Amino acid sequence: TRRDAELRRALADEQFVLHYQPVVALPGGDLAGVEALVRWQHPERGLLAPGEFIAAAEDTGLIVPLGRWVLRAAVRQAAAWRAGLGAGAPRTVSVNASPQQLQNPEFAAEVAAALDEAGLPPTCLTLEITESTALGGGATWTTLAALRELGVRVALDDFGTGASTLSLLVDCPVDQVKLDRSFVPGPGRDAIARAVLQLTQAMGVEAVAEGVETAEQAELLTAMGYRRAQGYHFARPAPAEDLFAHRVG
Ligand code: G
Ligand code: G
Ligand code: NA
């Protein structure tokens, strides 16, 4: 198809770029890590968000080579920040992974090789998967276990929006849960955010609140006991060179 050919060419021509969004510590807002978010610098249509091409990449299977590129670029960038910024560098880089990547029996070895090549410790990488990916079973769970054995951290993204049951957290152990932005608390609507925090604390899993857009939301989350947050209130996704321009440049 045309779509397929266009995506293939984009990969060959290196038209993809990564933006990074800070994950911060609460209270205080100090930098804790970054999430890598892919964009397509399209020659005619300009900068495209993942919503415009990830689904097509998944349908055509091109998500496997695209995901490989994203992973390698993100760990290289994280290693460069560590070398250049020292204690000021983000301590973790989070990378989104699609179901097909996790089902690939070579994926854990590829991740290990990318980390090794970049010189980034495995504990500095978090792979974000969605609940539907985590429900993959079989090959997916073997890959996740191999990754965690390496020291790579696994996060369950968009938590609370899937059709999953809580037993998923038992069947598919993860290191971090990202509360979906639809559950960011407001006055009189904080039950889900509270419940998810209690659940993660009971399981010894880190909780990250996503989609924090106001100071009031950040205060509510802090008062509840959230220690990690991400959202436009703190910082928008930006190119690597803009993120720490004031410190590196
Ligand atoms: O800002 P935003 O539009 O960047 O991202 C939208 C969605 O695209 C998010 O749900 C995110 O998980 C997904 N996404 C962003 N980057 C990647 C990537 O590199 N791989 C995959 N599989 N999904 C991504
Ligand atoms: O979890 P996921 O990978 O879906 O989250 C990344 C997506 O969320 C990206 O599209 C990113 O641009 C978007 N995003 C990040 N912070 C905020 C925010 O505070 N509000 C909203 N509405 N979207 C956000
Ligand atoms: Na994500």
Q: What is the tally of helical segments?
A: 12
Radius of gyration: 18 Å
Bound molecules: guanosine-5'-monophosphate, sodium ion
Query: What is the oligomeric state here?
Result: single chain
Number of strands: 10
Going by CATH, the homologous superfamily would be EAL domain
Query: What's the SSE pattern?
Result: HEEEHHEHHEHHEHEHEHEEHH
Could you say which structural class the secondary elements and strand pairing correspond to?
alpha/beta
Low-confidence parts, pLDDT < 50 over ≥5 residues? none
Ordered list of secondary-structure elements with their pairings:
Blueprint: H1 2-12, E1 16-25, E2 31-42, E3 46-48, H2 54-60, H3 63-85, E4 92-96, H4 99-103, H5 107-118, E5 125-130, H6 131-134, H7 138-150, E6 153-159, H8 168-171, E7 176-179, H9 191-203, E8 206-209, H10 215-224, E9 228-229, E10 238-239, H11 240-243, H12 245-248
Helix pairs in contact: 3-5, 5-7
The structure holds guanosine-5'-monophosphate (2 copies) and sodium ion (NA).
One guanosine-5'-monophosphate is lined by residues 37-38, 49-51, 54, 67, 70, 96, 98, 237.
Domain EAL: 1-249
Keywords: Membrane, Transmembrane, Transmembrane helix
Protein name: EAL domain-containing protein
